[in-house]
Design a protein that fits this description.
about 140 residues; Jelly Rolls; two-stranded antiparallel sheet; mainly beta; 1 helix
């Protein structure tokens, strides 16, 4: 057993997020584990850019109301206690609803070769985000 200290919270980079988003690392796997876990907090209206994960991603909402969208235009509204599974290589985005905070645990695996499991893409267009909030 190993007790890990609480790691500092960091503001996420503007190149990958719109609005104010904060990340607290929880765990970065060491062999044979490749799991990464983080608590991600989104302020109202904040969201990730479009992105995908080589081995997929699991999002477990811990607080608030958020949105997750995929390229076909589908959007799900997510609430505390709910979990969303994003399959490998599916381009998606996620963030807070326009008028609510949202926090989730982000769980993913590193690629077997140790490379970055996330491919970051373009920001979510404002009109697409506004439409998603109306659903």
């Amino acid at each position: 057993m190993e007790l890990q200290p609480v790691r500092p919270t960091v503001k996420t980079p503007a190149e990958a997020f719109t609005g104010d988003v904060y990340l607290t690392p929880i765990y970065n796997g060491t062999g044979p584990s490749r799991m990464t876990a983080a608590l991600v907090r989104f302020t109202p209206g904040a969201r990730s850019n479009w992105h995908s994960h080589a081995v997929g991603q699991t999002l477990h909402v811990t607080e608030g109301v958020g949105l997750v969208g995929i390229r076909d235009g589908s959007v799900v509204r997510i609430h505390a206690g709910e979990t969303v599974i994003c399959p490998p290589d599916e381009e998606h985005w996620h963030g807070a609803a326009a008028d609510r905070f949202m926090s989730h645990l982000a769980l993913l695996e590193a690629k077997p070769d140790g490379g970055d499991p996330t491919t970051w893409l373009e920001p979510v267009a404002q009109d697409l985000y506004e439409k998603a909030n109306q659903q």
